[in-house]
Amino acid sequence: MPDKVVDASVLAAFAFAESRADEPRDLMADANLFAPEILPYELASLALKKSRRLPSLRFDTAMRLQTALTLDVELIHIAARDLLSAALQTGLTIYDAAYLQTARLLDCPLVTFDAKLARQARNFTQA
Prior knowledge:
With 127 residues, the chain is of the alpha/beta class. It has one domain: Rossmann fold. The chain has seven helices and four strands; from the N terminus they run E-H-H-E-H-H-E-H-H-E-H. The chain has helices at residues 8-15, 23-28, 39-53, 58-69, 80-90, 94-106, 115-126; strands at 3-6, 32-36, 73-76, 110-111. Helix 1 (8-15) crosses helix 4 and helix 6 (94-106) runs parallel beside helix 7 (115-126). The longest helix has 15 residues, at 39-53. The protein is globular. The two termini are 24 Å apart. The mean pLDDT is 91.
């Protein structure tokens, strides 16, 4: 099975049944999945925003978050100084730089729906 780094945008689409919810299953199929340690916090932050926006769906959102957090994704530690360097180098946020650095560290593809992050990941693979 190939290794892939998956970001919060892909897992959120899958977990919270967003507009692109059908795509993540194929993108993640038959792969060993990895993400930086921030992934659970990013997913929880998204769940909070959804819960505040649609209070009547709080329970459903919490259950979907729990399901997402049980997916087989290995969390990887990335040093803060490496995140700072990558963010300064690429113009990404620290959070997005964490996904890019994880892909660099593991030398594997990054699966994301974020256009800017995807562009930086492509630049990395072409270098």
